[in-house]
Amino acid sequence: EADTEAEAQDSGDVYVTVNGVKYNTQELIAQLQTYGASVKTNSSDATVIAAYNALSDEQEAELKANLNPAE
């Protein structure tokens, strides 16, 4: 049983902020992998951010179009 209402509503999702935009980490990793990035589901935030920053401008724009920022 949850101790608080916040815990009861917690989805367990983990987020990473890249260039000021907050993303669900697992969704971002899945998208990065489609571009051939070698990131694993348990990668550190620094690894995920480095993979994101290694994308070409075109890939980054495409990723942003396919991935909704977290709220």
N→C terminal distance: 26 Å
| Helix content percent band | 40-55%
Contiguous low-pLDDT stretches (5 residues minimum) are none
Tally of helical runs: 4
Largest β sheet strand count, sense and barrel closure: 2 strands, antiparallel
Rg from Cα: 14 Å
Number of strands: 2
Task: Name the features.
71 residues, mainly alpha, two-stranded antiparallel ribbon, 4 helices, 48% helix, globular
Plain-language structure description:
By secondary structure, the protein is mainly alpha-helical. Helices cover 48% and strands 11% of the residues. It has four helices and two strands; from the N terminus they run H-E-E-H-H-H. A two-stranded antiparallel ribbon has the order 1-2. A hairpin with a 2-residue loop joins strand 1 and strand 2. The longest helix is centred in the middle third of the chain and has 10 residues. The chain is globular and about 30 Å long.
Task: Annotate the secondary structure layout.
Elements (H helix, E strand, L loop, with lengths): L4 H5 L5 E4 L2 E4 H10 L10 H9 L3 H10 L5
Helix pairs in contact: 2-3
